[in-house]
Amino acid sequence: MQNIRNFCIIAHIDHGKSTLADRLLEFTKTVSERNMQAQALDDMDLERERGITIKSHAVQMDYTHLDGTKYVFNLIDTPGHVDFSYEVSRSLAACEGALLLVDATQGIQAQTISNLYLAIENGLEIIPVINKIDMDGAMIEEVSDQIIDLIGCEAEDIIHASGKTGIGIQDIMTGIVNRIPAPKGDENAPLQALIFDSVFNSFRGVIAYFRVKNGSIKKGDKVKFVNTGRAYEADEVGILRMNLEPRNEVKAGDVGYIITGIKVSKEIKVGDTITHLSQPCNEAIKGFEDVKPMVFAGIYPIDNDDYEELRESLEKLQLNDASLVFEPETSLALGFGFRCGFLGLLHLEIVQERLEREYDMTIITTVPNVTYYAYTKDNNKLIVNNPSDLPEPNLLDYVEEPYIKANIITKPEYIGTIMKLCMDKRGILKNQVYLTETRIELQFEMPLAEIVFDFYDQLKSISKGYASFDYHMIDFRESDLVKLDIKLNGENVDAFSALIHRTKAYHFGSRLCEKLKELIPRQQFLIAIQAAIGAKIIARETISAMRKDVTAKCYGGDISRKRKLLEKQKKGKKKMRQIGKVEVPQQAFMAVLKLND
User: What is the pLDDT of residues 552-587, one digit of tens each?
Assistant: First the structure.
């Protein structure tokens, strides 16, 4: 165990984690030159296309130190986006140390700070690394000062490196050996292993990745998962290279995988503890919590016959993405579907794309919203995840909505526009601190519902990509919220319902009606699109009917002949409007998400 090092790489999005991981894999010859490709650990097409890490990846490397000692490195590459901080927290629990990566051209950004705090809470040894030092805009001295201020280290503790060219890789390797402690544990104690990730394989079932804290696990052992209380046989155990490598035994301090033939996602809980059935450990490993979704949206199949198939796809996706939560729901407009909980809007987008690509599902997503607490006049507290769950106005006393603390780090020249954006989103400025002459940190308290839509995109565009953003939940506060309904020919379309602040309801309602007018195709009858709060209509657009020229066959003759035909057409249209159903195209549901474009 003295020669094992378990570590992860933490950084803000786009600071070069995956590129540095590639260099480490090359340096230790874990991947041959012939098989090497950029973002080697990112195995999803989506990750490569977007250039982001969505899922944590674990890999084992063999390294021979300068003095000839052989070491085993277990690296867990983590995502950098704020939506995937749950993935990061799981990875940190399986490590003893972390490389804190900071881009020399951008300096410390919001997510760097929040990931650092997560690592410190887990008691990890931090090795600061300045990356991209070979770039023209590198500000090495400034960034060094920022790191020293942040973690209180010495200037000589900071490693200068370049993930692209390989500068400083040997220094990083030496730092990992000398500064990250070896794992502690007892090989002879009862088995205690922490599950930190799981993936689904269509041939072998669920593969659970674990880190052994105490004891050892052998092929063929009878094991028990403490939280679910179920027992299994270990069909195969092994270590994680670029591919799975079976072994007869995985011992304390190491990271490995177990295949037990489980086919149902609910049987494996990330954060669970594995122990032996015959000689169980005294207590489960602490520090893991159930994920708390921030944003909710309905996902429905376009064809109702695909409902069961969508359920299976979501269950399989949940295996690869432990932070996805879903439950069945029905909608008058869309039929049967699922209410899904996500960590943020990027997470929603990724899940949507993965369902379409990996499981070939064509789906409709409703307007995303957050969790509210509704208090009725007889002092009942209701949890509202869906606008249609809100009690009637005559029964409702008040509504509370979730507030977040937002940390924004930016250049001073963008302060004005960023403050305006946050104030427009009902933000309250709490603090502003100059970190250096060219970097300022702003702290706002804002309603979570306001940042769910397009806040992140707007922030990036007004700051030309310089502002970085991170947030965490603080509490629930009373707000003047109303339920906005969209009616098509007098019928509510519950998929478009939204809970919104009274001051913004008119603007949002009129914009949505205009957008729907563009996107809903014309029918043979007139369509009225209305936005309403309760019984009060606050905005309206009308899609005029397609008109067939019924008088075309009348050449001359008395006007009463034409009038008769027009009256007959009018009656037909009226009847059609009563029985006609307005088809809402998929783009209309998507357009709501991009109302500000």
Answer: 677 777 778 788 888 887 777 666 555 556 666 656
All structural domains of the chain with their residue ranges: 4-179, 192-276, 295-368, 373-479, 482-593
CB burial of residue 264 (10 Å; 0-12, 13-18, 19+) = exposed
**Sign of the alpha-carbon torsion through 211, 216, 219, 220:** negative
Identical fold for domains 4-179 and 192-276, yes or no, is no
At 84, phi and psi to the nearest 5? -105, 25
Helix axis angle, 502-519 to 586-593, nearest 10°: 150
CATH number of 373-479: 3.30.70.240
CB 214 within 8 A of CB 183: no
| Average pLDDT for the chain | 78
27 vs 29: CA distance, rounded Å: 5
Decide which of 1.10.260.40, 3.40.1160.10, 3.30.465.10, 3.40.50.300 is the CATH code for 4-179: 3.40.50.300
Using alpha carbons only, how large is the chain's radius of gyration in Å? 28
Instruction: Give the sign of the dihedral formed by CA 312, CA 316, CA 317, CA 318.
Output: positive
d(CA 23, CA 28): 9
Q: Are strands 273-276 and 97-103 parallel, antiparallel or unpaired?
A: unpaired
- Cβ atoms of 221 and 233 within 8 Å: the answer is yes
Q: What is residue 490's three-state secondary structure?
A: coil
